[in-house]
Amino acid sequence: MEWNLLVEAAWQAREHAYAPYSEFAVGAALLADDGRVFVGCNVENLSYGLTRCAEQVAVGAAVAAGARKFLGVAVVADSGVPISPCGACRQVLAEFGVPRVLLANRSSRLEFRLEELLPRATAGILDRGE
Ligand code: THU
């Protein structure tokens, strides 16, 4: 997986983060299997629980453009350690089987399989296997 382009796209998307409450900007970039890249940033709300994470915004943009198969996602923030997706975002990524996840800050990167971040995401639900 060639992550550099995706990481750069995620940093660019982060520039558009709407995060007036947390002041914590996040960017995400999702690579579709046809080569298209879809980006997202966090979009916060005065009613805090309505906040949308960068990953979910990227998935929404991709699905709205007709993409449903993905190779990986990069998530970036200017954090002390590479940012980790929240549980809800892991579930949303699992819905579309995004297999690889790169988490980055300004100085380091960590790569995971989504299966490591959310084991047994679908097992048993609506009688699915793992
Ligand atoms: N956030 C994301 O956008 N993605 C993550 O992976 C973790 C957290 C956002 C949500 C909120 O706007 C801010 O970061 C602080 O939690």
Please specify the SSE layout and strand pairing:
Blueprint lengths: L3 H11 L11 E7 L4 E5 L12 H11 L5 E8 L9 H9 L4 E5 L4 E5 H4 L13
Parallel strand pairs: 3-4
Antiparallel strand pairs: 1-2, 1-3, 4-5
Describe the structure.
The chain is an alpha+beta fold and 130 residues long. The protein is 27% helix and 23% strand. It has helices at residues 4-14, 54-64, 87-95, 114-117; strands at residues 26-32, 37-41, 70-77, 100-104, 109-113. A 5-stranded mixed β-sheet has the order 2-1-3-4-5. Strand 1 (26-32) and strand 2 form a beta hairpin. The radius of gyration is 14 Å and the shape is globular. The mean pLDDT is 97. Bound molecules: tetrahydrodeoxyuridine (THU). The site of tetrahydrodeoxyuridine has 15 residues, from helix 2.
Task: Tell me the total number of β-strands.
Answer: 5
What is the tally of helical segments? 4
Query: What compounds sit in this structure?
Result: tetrahydrodeoxyuridine
As laid out across the biggest beta sheet, the strand order is: 2-1-3-4-5
- H-E string: HEEHEHEEH
Helicity level: 25-40%
Query: Helix/strand-derived class?
Result: alpha+beta
Which stretches are low in confidence, meaning pLDDT under 50 for 5 or more residues running? none
Percent of residues in beta strands?
A: 15-25%
- Intertermini distance: 24 Å
Radius of gyration: 14 Å
Specify the oligomeric state: single chain
Please tell me what the overall shape is: globular
**Mean of pLDDT:** 97
